[in-house]
Amino acid sequence: MTVFRVWAPDHDRVELLFGDDRVEMTPDQGGTSDGWWSTTISCDADADYAFSLDNGPTRPDPRSAWQPQGVHAPSRLYDHSVFAWTDETWHGVPLNGAVLYELHVGSFTEQGTFAAATARLDHLVDLGITAVELLPCNAFDGRWGWGYDGVLWYAVHDPYGGPDGLKQFVDAAHAKGIGVVMDVVYNHLGPAGNYLREFGPYLTDAHTTPWGPAVNLDREGSAEVRRYIVDNALMWLRDYHLDGLRLDAVHELIDDGPTHLLEELALAVKGLAAQFGKSLWLVAESDLNDIRLVQPRESGGMGLDGQWCDDVHHALHSTLTGEVDGYYVDFGPLEVLAKALTSAFVHDGTWSTFRGHHHGTPVPEVVPGDRFVVYLQDHDQVGNRAAGDRIALSPGLRRVGAALYLLSPYTPMIFMGEEFGAVTPWPFFFDYPGDLGKAVLEGRRAEFAKHGWKTMQVPDPQDPATFASAKLAWDVQDAELLGFYRALLLLRRDRKELSDGRRDAVSITWDDKARWLVMTRGDVAVACNLSGDRQAVPLPGSPQRVLLASAEGWVFGDGRVDTEGESVVVLELSH
Fold first, then answer.
1. In 128-202, which ranges are continuous DSSP H helix?
2. Neighbouring residues of 363: CB distance < 8 A, sequence distance ≥ 6
3. pLDDT surpasses 70 at 218
4. Is residue 573 a contact partner of residue 531, using CB atoms and an 8 Å limit?
5. Residue 31 — pLDDT band, cuts 50, 70, 90?
6. String of b and e for 559-573 (b: at least 16 CB within 10 Å)?
7. CA–CA distances in Å: residue 388 to residues 242, 258, 383, 467, 471
8. What is the rounded distance in angstroms from the CA atom of residue 53 to the CA atom of residue 277?
9. Distance (Å, rounded) from C-alpha 324 to C-alpha 330?
10. pTM (2 decimals)?
11. Of 12, 33, 59, which residue constitutes the final position of a domain?
12. What is the rounded distance in angstroms from the CA atom of residue 63 to the CA atom of residue 77?
């Protein structure tokens, strides 16, 4: 016998649609179950089913685990206990010391499936990755998309391989010593296939977000909405054996209640980690530069394990490319990059020209650098450019940028293909139907036109060719660059100074006019020549030997290293 339950408050009649049968459901009574309906029937373990509210149309289960025919179709039962896991000895991967790899399943390989991604795991092992971060894999409308417009948060996108496909990928990754983290979106629902509001007050007009009404976290009915989110987070970690979650745009989780949802999530995940005796963690994306996200609850913080740090990206990008428009306006000078490499937040209460107000909070020295995830590229910073173009750098500056963030005191994240100099763009793409797709395209082109981009420079997101252009070309690789990335990560692993998250043990010297910068971590110095000319870069100690160099021709002497233009040399020092 199978029990079916659904939360549908304020409805007079709820029916379970099972084949040609319509089964009346009965309301649960009292306590925390108010608004829940249930029924028990005999059926196959993989039967299809749906719900009808007040004699309305067929709707999938809000907690559906499987949508093999898409988000508009009936749900299919899925038993999590059946899968034969082989990772019993896996105890997770701690955020401290981790090296992440951001991967979009649909464009990582030509096939765009979990199975095809599994076949590439050896590449990640050889690279030195400790955890893969998957872009959202919950069910969304259409065959392809970024995944951030999910509408059924409990279901795995079936074209990727469905729930079994994800489990097989995670199991295989763990067997190779690689953790798996999932990007989850709790701040909004997609525009196509979103039926949750028909079931209950999942959204509220009391708050607004860039995507419309906010998810209801603090108004009537919010207790069950919060439960829906917390249960979902625990499902990914428990039933799919994921090692952590990346929480998308938490600044749009508007919660005026006594306990913020993020605190509730942090407590629930810590409890699950204790129950299973493994490392589980939560990392937030936020544009607030608010250190409270990663401070302990006992100190008035949210208790999360880490957060993305766009300021480090912006400082690196502006320094290396010279771009200083838009949100890069306050970045560019080496002094700003030096602050980013030691303080994480450049805007830590300082004036933000782009925002027009003071922004951010200071980062106390006791907060370790590994709490901040940093990157030279990521899905947002590439995909939200008009043409989805990757960072354009000379071979030398590309290696300088890689060395600075991969050997920084932070938790580094490589964007798929970056390590071998991928030439494929990663533009915005989706598979929305008809008029909705046209409306999104028009809005996107109008937005970029404000910033001087010609309309046709913005690819049509719903054109299949746009999606096809985003697929990694594995047969076009810069072998020397790939070797350099591998060497950097091997060095990071082997030298304890480079895997230590202490920011107070990092010192930066620089000369903006001569265009050189040196990042020193213990007995290791990362000397960067950002100019086009050969020059002597002064060192804060006596060089003993070169650990890694991006170009030949270096010569070190007393307290300096002579380098070719646009190059980086990593040296061991004596002080």
1. 162-175, 196-199
2. 291, 343, 344, 345, 348, 503
3. yes
4. no
5. very low
6. ebbebbbbbbbbbbb
7. 29, 41, 4, 11, 12
8. 42
9. 7
10. 0.96
11. 59
12. 11
User: Within a domain: residue 121?
Assistant: no
Distances (CA, A) of 146 to 163, 455, 462: 18, 22, 12
Domain that holds residue 7: 2-59
Among candidate residues 303, 249, 251, 298, the one with its CA nearest the CA of residue 273: 303
From CA 462, how far away is CA 466, in angstroms rounded?
7
Using a 10 angstrom Cβ sphere, with 0-12 exposed, 13-18 middle and 19 or more buried, the burial of residue 316 is: buried
- 169 assigned to some structural domain: no
Q: Which residue has the tokens 């990727």?
A: 160
Q: Could you give the CA distance from residue 54 to residue 244 in angstroms, rounded to a whole number?
A: 39
Find, among 316, 303, 384, 379, the residue nearest to 344 by Cα.
Answer: 316
Domain CATH for 9:
2.60.40.10
Kindly state the tokens that stand for 93: 């991967």
Model pLDDT, residue 453: 60
Q: For residue 245, which amino acid is it?
A: L
Q: Which amino acid is at 514?
A: A
Map tokens 């990346």 to a residue.
246
Active site residues: 248, 285
C-alpha span between 386 and 461 (Å, rounded): 11
